[in-house]
């Protein structure tokens, strides 16, 4: 069919050229009204335009399909753009619509994972900040726990902080503080105390 149309197109061109010469004109716009009323000519012009448009569509589809083969797994936006155009060029091809839906969903799922990861990272950062606010930035001691330890000592002035660390237990933290201090006999001893605190630094319990 395309060959017949192309032959017709050549015939159209020949007729137009002959008409232009006969009327003494060099451009397409000079065709006389009698020629424009030629039904066969008009049909061939219409068919030629239709075939040309189809050829252009086929070429564009071929180009887009070639591009789609080089897509990486994460190139959702590019894939959506390609298959949107393919679906527009050939609405009757269900595979294009199926691929478009698949990549659209994959893009949405990927964006949701990124959003959740960002939210989790922000929550973790805020939690860490909240917990670390309970500790001294100078020597790492726990403000509340150190005060409690001193209040329970025979000689609070002999208190000498060695180190403090903590373990995040989820609903609370467990704080380990190692320190020196004088006992009831005046001797300098090293001791370790363990206690649980909530995320706001409030004492929950001492751990033996």
Question: Can you tell me about this structure?
Answer:
It is a single chain. The protein is α+β, with helices and mostly antiparallel strands. The chain has 3 domains: 1-61, no CATH class; 71-132; 143-207. The protein is 57% helix and 16% strand. A 4-stranded antiparallel beta sheet has the order 1-2-3-4, covered by helices on one side. A hairpin with a 5-residue loop joins strand 3 and strand 4. Helix 1 (2-22) packs across helix 3 and helix 4 runs antiparallel to helix 5 (94-132). The mean pLDDT is 86.
Ends: how far apart?
93 Å
Which stretches of 5+ consecutive residues score pLDDT under 50? Answer: none
Spatial ordering of strands, largest sheet: 1-2-3-4
Q: How many structural domains can be distinguished in the coordinates? A: 3
Mean pLDDT across every amino acid position: 86
Structural class: alpha+beta
Apparent shape: rod-shaped
Radius of gyration: 41 Å
Pattern of helices and strands: HHHHHHEEEE
Largest sheet: 4 strands, antiparallel
Report helical residue fraction.
55-70%
- Strand content is 15-25%
Total strands: the figure is 4
Number of helices: 6
Structure characteristics:
alpha+beta; 6 helices; 4-stranded antiparallel sheet; 208 residues; rod-shaped
């Amino acid at each position: 069919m395309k060959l017949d149309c192309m032959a017709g197109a050549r015939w159209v061109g020949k007729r137009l050229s002959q008409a232009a010469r006969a009327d003494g004109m060099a451009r397409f716009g000079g065709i006389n009204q009698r020629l424009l009323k030629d039904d066969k000519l008009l049909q061939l012009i219409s068919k030629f335009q239709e075939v040309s448009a189809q050829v252009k569509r086929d070429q564009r589809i071929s180009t887009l399909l070639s591009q789609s083969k080089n897509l990486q797994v994460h190139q959702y936006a590019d894939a959506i753009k390609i298959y949107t155009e393919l679906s527009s060029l050939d609405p009757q091809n269900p595979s294009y619509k199926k691929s478009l839906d698949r990549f659209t969903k994959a893009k949405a799922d990927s964006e949701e994972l990124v959003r959740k990861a960002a939210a989790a990272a922000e929550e973790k950062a805020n939690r860490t900040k909240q917990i670390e606010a309970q500790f001294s930035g100078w020597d790492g001691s726990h403000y509340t726990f150190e005060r409690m330890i001193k209040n329970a000592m025979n000689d609070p002035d002999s208190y000498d902080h060695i180190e403090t660390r903590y373990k995040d237990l989820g609903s609370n933290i467990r704080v380990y503080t190692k320190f020196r201090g004088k006992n009831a006999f005046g001797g300098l001893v090293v001791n370790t105390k363990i206690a649980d605190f909530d995320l706001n630094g409030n004492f929950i319990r001492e751990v033996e």
